[in-house]
């Protein structure tokens, strides 16, 4: 039995055999991956443990298809996936290929949607951090100044505001010393 990651749960498992392989195993479908594990064997003198033969991330799955013969002997399941910028395929014999097909299709679509949403969320957070940094570097940008009854926006001519070069305190323009830190201005 494979070791699952945090927040990973099993959707379906069952006996399977790779079409090009000679040994039977168990295929597991989780909410993140497809895992194929070759069964171990035990004899009188020696035991061979199970080993993981294939691990596919559901976000890498490109296509899933199945074929069921009329005699209902062995159904085959084909999984096509991205690997190193090329599409590869693996075929399995499974008991209920239609169920595997449906479950893999649903889980793959869900995993891709969640990955897309996570990428969008990360880009939005990055954009918000950049905006906060820009606001911190340029204080008072976009602030409306009110003079008497008249509102002055950023498009009209505003009096140039001055700031102390040491403490960045706002100055009215006629001070010789900064009222906040005492820095000599002229």
Automatic annotation (TrEMBL):
Domain Zinc-ribbon: 163-185
Domain of life: Archaea
Family annotation (InterPro entries): Zinc_ribbon_dom
Protein name (Swiss-Prot/TrEMBL): Zinc-ribbon domain-containing protein
Organism: Picrophilus torridus (strain ATCC 700027 / DSM 9790 / JCM 10055 / NBRC 100828 / KAW 2/3)
